UniProtKB/TrEMBL annotation:
<dbReference type="Pfam" id="PF02660">
    <property type="entry name" value="G3P_acyltransf"/>
</dbReference>
<dbReference type="GO" id="GO:0005886">
    <property type="term" value="C:plasma membrane"/>
</dbReference>
<comment type="similarity">
    <text>Belongs to the PlsY family.</text>
</comment>
<comment type="subunit">
    <text>Probably interacts with PlsX.</text>
</comment>
<keyword id="KW-1208">Phospholipid metabolism</keyword>
<dbReference type="InterPro" id="IPR003811">
    <property type="entry name" value="G3P_acylTferase_PlsY"/>
</dbReference>
<keyword id="KW-1133">Transmembrane helix</keyword>
<feature type="transmembrane region" description="Helical">
    <location>
        <begin position="152"/>
        <end position="176"/>
    </location>
</feature>
<feature type="transmembrane region" description="Helical">
    <location>
        <begin position="81"/>
        <end position="99"/>
    </location>
</feature>
<dbReference type="GO" id="GO:0043772">
    <property type="term" value="F:acyl-phosphate glycerol-3-phosphate acyltransferase activity"/>
</dbReference>
<feature type="transmembrane region" description="Helical">
    <location>
        <begin position="111"/>
        <end position="132"/>
    </location>
</feature>
<comment type="function">
    <text>Catalyzes the transfer of an acyl group from acyl-phosphate (acyl-PO(4)) to glycerol-3-phosphate (G3P) to form lysophosphatidic acid (LPA). This enzyme utilizes acyl-phosphate as fatty acyl donor, but not acyl-CoA or acyl-ACP.</text>
</comment>
<keyword id="KW-0443">Lipid metabolism</keyword>
<keyword id="KW-0812">Transmembrane</keyword>
<dbReference type="GO" id="GO:0008654">
    <property type="term" value="P:phospholipid biosynthetic process"/>
</dbReference>
<keyword id="KW-0472">Membrane</keyword>
<comment type="pathway">
    <text>Lipid metabolism; phospholipid metabolism.</text>
</comment>
Length: 198
């Protein structure tokens, strides 16, 4: 097996490391899997521990998607393998082998993957998230908007069928993982950014 194919399991295993759990334990915060929304992600850590903890979690989760792709770029892997490596990191975050396959929703890790595909694509997705969050103050709605538009951004900027397909799969899984948020948004029960979840 060519050594570059080992980047797929490496990306998955790196994705399986929970930044939210590590940051919360290091800072003495409640376990995000047990408190708040019970989602091990930056938004829940923000509610439980504040901005510093949330930023560290966000950076950690985004790095999990970005680092394997930077390595892959340095090895000049093929486009299909490049797409698979990014997707593996994302799946690792959603279904981590180290945490009984119960992970987060994948927003920050997906951002890291998009940045790895091409930084302008990641930037456009991030600006979409920020714009929707500024208007409506819902983290979930911002993530859903960015997820829906991400494949369009990849196609417009990169024109790579492999990367578009990988992004479509990521977006589909991300929307699926937000099904509870979608239900609460429709019922008017979703917590806004900055609100404490009881």
């Amino acid at each position: 097996m060519p050594v570059e194919w080992l980047l797929i399991p490496f990306a998955y295993l790196l994705g399986s490391v929970s930044s939210a759990v590590i940051v919360s334990r290091t800072l003495g915060l409640p376990d995000p899997r047990q408190e708040g929304s019970k989602n091990p992600g930056a938004t829940n850590v923000l509610r439980l521990g504040g901005k510093r903890a949330a930023i560290l979690t966000l950076l950690g989760d985004a790095s999990k998607g970005l680092i394997p792709l930077l390595i892959a770029k340095s090895m000049a892997v093929s486009p299909p393998l490049f797409a698979a490596i990014g997707f593996a990191a994302f799946v690792g975050h959603l279904y981590p082998v180290f945490f009984q396959f119960k992970g987060g929703k994948g927003v920050a890790t997906a951002l890291g993957v998009l940045l790895g595909f091409a930084w302008p694509v990641g930037l456009m997705a991030l600006l979409t998230w920020i714009g929707v969050a500024a208007l409506f103050r819902f983290s979930s709605l911002s993530a859903l908007a960015a997820a829906v538009l991400a494949p369009v951004y990849v196609w417009l900027w990169l024109g790579s069928a492999e990367l578009v397909v990988a992004t479509l799969f990521m977006s589909t899984l991300l929307v699926y993982r937000h099904k509870g948020n979608i239900e609460r948004l429709l019922k008017g029960e979703e917590a806004r950014l900055g609100a404490k979840r009881l």
